[in-house]
Amino acid sequence: MTFDSVPKIIACGCFRSGTTILAKMLSAHPEILFTSEMYSFKPDWQKHFLKKVNRLHTAEPVDVDKLDSIYSSSFVSKEDMSKFLSLAIDLDNVEKILSLLYDFASKHKKIRYYGDKWPEYVFQLKQTLRRESEIKKIIFCVRDPRDIIESQIRNYWRGITEGLTSEQMRIIHPWRKPHVHACITQPYNWLRYMKAWDNNKRDLKVDFYELMYHRLAENKQTVASELAGFLGVSATPMIEIFKKMFNPVRHEAWRNSLPNLTAALPKTWLDMMNKYHLKV
To answer: Which end of the chain has fewer surrounding CB within 10 Å, N or C?
Structure first.
């Protein structure tokens, strides 16, 4: 099997809904090659990933530590990763980089799927599926918007306790915005993504799985088994990966603050959450 013929997966969902942790967990599976925001299925955005690759070559030797675990799990060693980056910098499009990445990952993975996560894939699913015939599975991540708000507030105050200025937080972690901003904007963003998914999923011609963040936090083993079954890959590695990577402690913190968050939202938002299958 080659990169062009391997079945493809799209992972999407409102930002801060678990798409990144999902990408990390899937990339660690021995039968899956998974990337993060390579814009593999969105050609007009691929220039942004090429900029990421270029930024990794600002120093010599190549600083492979700048690559996070999503990419590092595709390589046998740091030396292998460094070799890949040295070759990738001379390639002029993402398709060539992905084919090269596939070749490197095939050294230690029996790849049955390639996938990429980008929250905004959800807005053009139908067009993407018409253009990319090898896409066989879609995973949509759903998280309670009150949980999204709480996580953003928590990140903001963590930055404050670390002594970071607002400008430093904006540069280092763009999600660390003041809690008032989070409460105002996040419900609208969440609703925009949920409406797009609701409109798209009715007509999808491929299989899809809705990954509920709270279920992942409360019962990792069940969700891991379901996801493995959905993809048709080995369940045992998936369960072990989920156990190691997902920390439910933060989810418990959200549960404790839930009454205050619920009281802060108007009834119209609670009605919308119920409409989109998130029972309040």
So the answer is: N
Contact 214, 248 (CB under 8 A): no
Q: How many residues make up the chain in this entry?
A: 280
Can you say whether the dihedral through the CA atoms of 215, 220, 222, 228 is positive or negative? positive
| CA torsion through residues 241, 245, 247, 248, sign | negative
**Is the full-model pTM beyond 0.85?**
no
Q: What is the mean pLDDT of each run of 10 residues along the chain (280 residues)?
A: 92 89 90 90 78 59 56 82 80 85 93 94 91 94 81 64 57 49 68 90 91 85 93 91 68 61 67 60
What type of residue sits at position 191? L
